[in-house]
Amino acid sequence: MTSTLVPTTRTDKRLKLRDVWCALAGLASLVLAVGAAASVVLPVNSDLGLVAVLPYPYWVGLLLLNVTFVVALRGDATGPASRPVMMWLLAVQVLVLFGAAAFVTDVPRGEVAFRHLGIADALGGTGAVDPNIDAYFNWPGFFALLATVLQATGLDPLTVALWAPVFNVGLWLVAVAVLMRYLTQDPRRRWLVLWIFCLGNWQDQDYLSPQAFGFFLYLVVAVLLIGPLAARPSRFRGFRPSDLAAWWRERSPSEHRPGFRVGALAAVILLVTVICASHQLTPFMLLITITVLTLSGRVWPGRLPLITAILLVLWLVYPASTYLIGHPPMEDAGLSAAVESNVAERVSGTPGHVFVVQVRVVLTVLLWLLALAGAVRDWRRRRLDIRVVLFAVSPMLLFPSQMYGGEMLIRVSLFALPFIALLASSALLPKQCSTRPSFKTAGALVLIFCLLAAMTVTGRFGNARYDVFTDNEMAAIAAAESMAPPGAAILSAAHPTPWRTGTYLEHQHRAIEDLCRQDLTAATCGPTFYNYARNNPAGGFVVLMRSTEASLVLQGDSTTNNMQEMEQWFKAQDGVELVLSNADARVYRVVP
Amino acid sequence: MSGALKSQTLAIGLAAVALSLVTIAGLPAPLQAVAALGVLILLPGVALARLLPVTDPAPAALLALALGLATLTAVSLGMFYLAVWSWQACVLAMGLITVLACVARAWQDTARTRKEVAQ
After folding, report:
1. A44, A145, A155, A486: which could form a disulfide with B73 (CB 3.0–4.6 Å)?
2. CA A263: distance to chain centroid?
3. CA B60 to CA B73: how far, in whole Å?
4. Structural domain of A40
């Protein structure tokens, strides 16, 4: 491994027939997969999500793509296929894996992207930050960016949200590609890492969100830490204070131009500030990684962890203080609580849903095992780069510190993924660097990639029964939000609900599952949400949709019978009037 | 080489001024998006990344993207906290940042040329 950039130029620049075939096969894969995804009829009615309804040409396309990539990766004695071909195959992979839902429907998946558009809209509407509104307004960096971009470009917000996963993964891949140029000289390994990064990216954190933006900036900081800000450690003599002090003093910068180091440090400070202003979790991940890497003697500016910590604390005690007064950062810390929240509580629901969750866990474990095997292999061959191991492991240190709504393990696995992919690539390629993989190895790679691709599609789109919305559901939400007077309550059975895009501050949006946390039965929960709507001076609207019912049933929080009972009870109450009904949704007005 | 660099700096600066004006004036739908993204993210990013002596095109492109996005976030956020935000003001501010970065780059080039002549 290397700490400096080595330009990779292929000596033979003639167009090869194999490259042309690979490019055409990539195109055929794209046509097959896109055509198949576009033919899916909504709503998705399987507990397994999109994987169960995607027609076979999608899978043929995915198989062809992975076979083509292995052929291209194997290349010839001089190296893999040409760079444009490899980039094209990677672009097809991104479209097929991360754009699949966008070919199925014109509506963004999930609730959060809609909410984020609403926050940007609210921010643009008021022109100022009011931290009292909610947590998002204490970390408004990304939303300020989004509001400016949407208003200046005039782009359709829903289209931006629909294609955000493809755009974000593209951004991440650019950063990971540059990172790999610093970490390995083997072009096959670089392309393989990018491929594994896509195949292992089931976390579904690439939607229009501060964390997707923060992760991109995190990767850029990693590039700067491994590039111009890297240090060469001196010989380690022991743990005596004098030895440690000498070891620390004798480090030397990898980059010999001081101006470049200062410029890179200024860039890191800007990026850290923007990360601190945009997302709650990412700056902590960054602080831990920078600290661990600096303590290993691999980062030249020794005070960088201190600078990062100061920026983080300043953000927390000033702009984010309003939120933190009621929510201490370590409020729900602890390993057992984290395991309970991130693993145990998630493995519940219908058999289909449990299977999807298990696939996600198995995929993560599989990649980590491959990475472990690769790390052992590199270590035995004395080429293990300790920085890669530190980048892969340090996000895990944050796991017990916060439950983060049960999503901490997802975030940890995403932050570690580029480095896990790099270590895993060592287990998948021949022991000798730059050696062409044999036919046997190529066959094994195709099998592994197809397995990972199927698992990623299952994991990513496993909630499609309730996070892919139909036009009828969108019409119901639009009707409720347009009919509701300012201040009115709008209630939906559960998350995700595609709401709050244009009326973030106008209405009180609440999910019935949040109001009735413990008991969703008609007898207990019915009066709770009915009274909530009825007691609102501006009245309320209750939206009951196919997707929200599926969300509760799939995750084991309620049953179809219970939901029907609750609706029957609710319909019979005073002041409740049905104002819209279609195949997938009903909207009720509750007069105050 | 120095002349080529100076003309590139000049082109970026002039493009920032021109795109700022046409973006604020308004363009038909797809062109408005292209112009706005150019003046808000791409040009400031490229101008700022050129202040660093990065020679490899891949890290330079990555830095341009990241610095463009981060600077726009910082500028927009600052305006929101000061309650002076408007997208037009952001366009002007990013145009100004691009021009200032170009001036700094020109100053760097001049200093380098003088140093080379002195040697």
Report:
1. A145
2. 30
3. 20
4. 14-105
Nearest CA to A426 out of A466, A480, A373, A468 is that of: A373
- Across the interface, whether the CB atoms of A155 and B40 are under 8 A apart is answered no
* Predicted local confidence at residue A431, as pLDDT: 75
Helix (H) and strand (E) counts in chain B = 5, 0
Does B65 sit within 8 Å of A270, measured CB to CB?
no
Which domain-ending residue is among A83, A105, A127? A105
CATH code, A498: 3.40.50
* Domain boundaries, position B84: 2-118
Facing A128 at nearest CB: one of B37, B83, B87: B83
Cα–Cα distance for residue pair A427/A371, rounded to 1 Å: 7
Domain count, chain B: 1
Q: Is residue A458 part of a domain?
A: no
Answer whether residue A70 is part of any domain.
yes
Q: Write down the residue that tokens 């289209």 correspond to.
A: A159
What residue in B sits closest to A140 (Cα-Cα)? Answer: B77
- Report CA-CA distances (Å) from A417 to A184, A190, A412, A422, A436: 16, 14, 9, 8, 25
pLDDT band at B1 (very low <50, low <70, confident <90, very high): very low
From A7, which residue of chain B is nearest by alpha-carbon distance?
A: B56
- The whole-number pLDDT of residue A4 equals 47
- Residue A361 domain-assigned (yes or no): no
Average pLDDT of adjacent 10-residue blocks, chain A of 592 residues: 47 76 98 97 96 97 98 92 96 97 96 97 96 95 98 97 98 98 94 98 95 98 97 89 92 93 97 97 95 96 97 95 77 61 69 95 96 96 94 88 72 95 94 82 96 97 96 97 96 96 93 88 92 94 97 93 94 96 97 91
Residue to test with chain A: of B46, B77, B88, B90, most A Cβ within 10 A: B77
H/E element, A587: strand A585-590
pLDDT, mean of residues B16-45: 97
**A585-590 and A540-545 strand pairing:** antiparallel
Smallest Cβ–Cβ distance between A144 and the set B23, B73, B86 belongs to B73
Question: CB–CB of B32/B23 below 8 Å?
Answer: yes
Give the whole-angstrom CA distance, residue A26 versus residue A52.
Answer: 24
From the CB of residue A490, how many other CB atoms can be counted at a distance below 10 Å? 25
- Residue A335, pLDDT score: 60
B3 has a pLDDT exceeding 60: no
User: What total number of domains does chain A contain?
Assistant: 2
Interatomic CA distance for residues A439 and A141, integer angstroms:
50
Model confidence pLDDT, tens digit, residues B57-89 = 999 999 999 999 999 999 999 999 999 999 999
The answer, yes or no, to whether the previous bond of A496 is cis (omega within 30 of 0) is yes
Judged by a CB distance cut-off of 8 A, whether residue A269 touches chain B is no
